[in-house]
Write a structure and sequence with these properties.
mainly alpha, Growth Hormone, Chain: A, 79% helix
Length: 391
């Protein structure tokens, strides 16, 4: 059984949904661009692939502050926390834009990771608290479209710019400017603090519940497992298929379109089919897509087609999981979503280092095999949690 909210949520307006969603654009672009940027980082700063992969670990390690952000959002209001997160992002992007030494660039990415970790659960909570569970797949599906849109209008153009000027710092100056615009837009939404809002449940109390740990294990295994492929993807495309940065950036347009289709499918189908069923089907179908990558060879049309299908399905599964988890502990929604971010971040830290190692000894085949195993174990954990909504 799931817990229920005390009062009806304040109705969410289309304007609020748009502004909260657009607020993710800059931080999501910076978070996403690090994956195709890894080979370029090794060249720019003269570091190894493993050193470059540390950027992913550092920005995802920042997810450990998500419970603090969630707690602050539950207590003081989501809008304040979202604006504060964007302030950290602007500082981090500016550091990356002036970095000469690799450690400065790493520090900038730590701040970008902190910003993302704070913004995400606050934004999800803001939208979830003001939409019924029956319609939440649509609302959070639209929110997650910013992830796909960032690849199309953020990652791809910036990768092209980096390739043209042979310098990655200018891209982060652009991102800092977009972040500032995002922060200003968020001042245009109300805080919507209710007078009768229940006192937030402490993180310690939540973590005493085995059902909560099963949900967090699901997030760790499924998100972290599939991230094994994300981390090695650029290395596979560059070293195995001969792609350069511009080609990889162009492929991210295809990926962005696929993800936009996936998140749009959640908007259209998840509430009708059921969020739980959508998550289980989505991650299972993702595993099938990873298997296909082992047999597509080196033909670009075949590689692009399989990658397109993979990103449609994985985006559907990931986006559908957010409204599902948002209803597990409604009285501590931001804190629960923040704990999920920690679990996801922990999985991605594991993946950021282990994926490079797995790729070195077994190529993309071994990487994908381990990713499939993790995803299946994650679905078992989800199915055994009593807090998971049945639909």
């Amino acid at each position: 059984m799931t817990e229920h909210s005390i009062s009806e949520p304040t109705p969410l307006t289309t304007r609020e949904l748009f502004l909260v969603t657009s607020g993710r654009l800059a931080s999501t672009t910076a978070f996403r661009i690090v994956y195709p940027l890894l080979p370029f980082v090794t060249h720019q700063f003269h570091v190894s692939n493993l050193d470059a992969a540390s950027l992913i670990a550092l920005q995802t390690a920042a997810a450990f502050v998500s419970p603090l952000g969630g707690r602050l959002a539950d207590r003081y209001g989501e809008r304040r926390v979202m604006i504060g997160g964007l302030g950290l992002f602007i500082l981090g992007a500016l550091l990356c834009s002036i970095a000469v030494a690799f450690w400065t660039f790493q520090l900038g990415y730590v701040l970008i990771g902190l910003a993302t970790a704070i913004y995400m659960p606050s934004g999800q909570s803001y939208l979830s608290a003001r939409s019924s569970y029956e319609k939440r797949g649509r609302v959070l599906g639209i929110f997650e479209m910013s992830w796909a849109v960032a690849a199309i209008i953020g990652v791809a153009p910036l990768m092209y710019l980096i390739n043209q000027v042979d310098n990655l710092r200018i891209a982060f100056g652009v991102l800092a400017g977009i972040g500032a615009v995002n922060a200003l837009l968020l001042f245009r939404i109300p805080e919507h603090r209710g007078e009768h809002r229940a006192a937030p449940i402490s993180t310690t109390v939540l973590l005493r519940r085995p059902a909560v740990w099963l949900i967090l294990l699901f997030a760790f295994l499924t998100f972290g497992g599939n991230d094994l492929f994300f981390v090695s993807q650029s290395l596979w495309l560059k070293n195995g298929l001969g792609a350069n940065e511009a080609t990889i950036g162009a492929l991210f347009v295809v990926i962005g379109i696929a993800e936009l289709l996936g998140s749009t499918s959640v908007v259209v189908f998840a509430d009708k089919l059921g969020k739980r069923r959508s998550v289980i089907f989505g991650f299972f179908a993702t595993a099938v897509s990873l298997l296909l990558m082992a047999v597509v060879g080196t033909q670009w049309w075949a590689v692009s087609a399989v990658i397109f299908c993979f990103y449609v399905i994985i985006e559907y599964a990931i986006v559908a999981s957010f409204p599902l988890i948002s209803e597990t502990v409604p009285h501590a929604r931001a804190t629960m979503m923040a704990l999920m971010s920690v679990a996801v971040g922990t999985g991605r830290i594991f993946s950021s280092f282990s994926s490079v190692y797995l790729y070195a000894i077994g190529g993309i085949l071994l990487v994908n095999a381990v990713a499939i195993g993790f995803s299946m174990m994650g679905l078992v954990a989800l199915s055994r949690s009593s807090l998971t909504p049945k639909r």
